[in-house]
Amino acid sequence: MIIPRPLITTTAFIAALVLIISRLPGVPSAPLLEIFTLGVLVAIIVIWAYQRRDQSLPDQKSRPGSTHNTDRLEKMAEEIRALRKHQKQILLDLPLGVCALNSDEKIITWNRALERMTSISAEQIQGTRLTDLEEPWLSLLHNFVESDYTHLYKQSFELNGKKRTVNLHKSLIGGSLSEDPANDGILLLLEDVTEVEILEASLTHSERLASIGRLAAGVAHEIGNPITGIACLAQNIRDEYQDEELRHMARQIVEQTERTSRIVQSLVNFAHAGSPTDKSASEVFSVRDCIDEAITLISLDKKGKPINYEIDCPQAISIRGDFQRMLQVLLNLINNSRDASQPDTTVRILCTGDSDQVAIVIEDEGVGIPPAVRDRVFDPFFTTKEPGKGTGLGLSLVYSIVEDLAGNIDIISPAQRDTNRGTRVIVTLPGGSSEDPRPGQQEEKAFWNGEIREHTGPEN
Known about the structure:
Elements: H1 5-22, H2 30-55, H3 66-93, E1 97-102, E2 107-110, H4 112-118, H5 122-125, H6 137-146, E3 151-159, E4 162-173, E5 185-192, H7 194-240, H8 244-271, H9 278-281, E6 283-286, H10 287-299, E7 308-312, E8 318-321, H11 323-340, E9 346-353, E10 357-363, H12 394-404, E11 408-412, E12 424-430, E13 446-447, E14 450-454
Parallel strand pairs: 7-9, 7-14
Antiparallel strand pairs: 1-2, 1-5, 3-4, 4-5, 6-8, 9-10, 10-12, 11-12, 13-14
Helix pairs in contact: 1-2, 7-8, 10-11, 11-12
């Protein structure tokens, strides 16, 4: 045991003092004991003061082991800073939108995914309140924060004219808001599921079309038998009678039965995933010929409205595919435009493109499509027409055929923003060679229920 120097010095001083005093004449021995005891107490106090001084020295580095402790603390602080930086980076790069609010609903975190989703930068929004957001984010997020739900799925809204769908998730930070509001907050997660919903809808649509196709195959088989009989009778009339008018009518019957047979075959192809035959898939034909034939057939309907058809489609624009199936597309689209239009109004048909891509635009002046049903127009059996006037299968068939032709179809309604009326349908297809198009009539035509007004333009 090492005796501290102050204790040795003090004890020696007291012992010497007691020894000197004890040798003085007339001094009793009892007081010496008291003096010695008092000296020991003084020595203890001195030792305690010495130890307190060592503990309160400002220069901690002079003490053994203090440098090691300081380095360790600095290393721990650096690790904590690195961990916080890593966690912040995870939040910033998370593919989900992250928004953190404090107890006053001020935004303190707005990550990159949310920046891309909303087109609002973090610098612009951090420090502001949730109520400062613009629509549609104000209603979407603020209503969710105020609600009792912690999860909301497939919340749809319109952003820049397009439908968006998100899943919302909410979590309280720091416990209940009623306990300590100063330390509380809310964490919001936004999951963009727009593409997932589109894929799900496409899959559901394909499954519905497949089931309808199987039904169509059975119907097509039953239709084929009487059509064959009608064609045989018409051929007999054509060959056995000399009356020219009768023979002309017989030839028309044969032509229409052949067309019906092709449609029946198309229904069978539709039943088998809508795949055309190899021969029809490689056919190159003029889009103008297909449009002209579609309008000719529509105009044969005596009960139809008188409609003017304004066509701007150069003869040279062609596509590769099945002429009969493309005819079905145009028949359905033009017929829908006619049904939606008032008598003596105009349906405009425009074609543009080259050997790589062709766009066919059909626009009417009708009432348009209500926004509430715009996303359902391609669903089988869905129709906005009166009962008995529509099957709801036309646009679903159009969708299937255009998809098989590696094309796209878009519907814009209303087409005229100023009047809030009209519908514009845009069909985009891969272009075909302009050589050897399907032979067709190129002259101007007049019809019972309207007229074609030719728009001449440069041949592509």
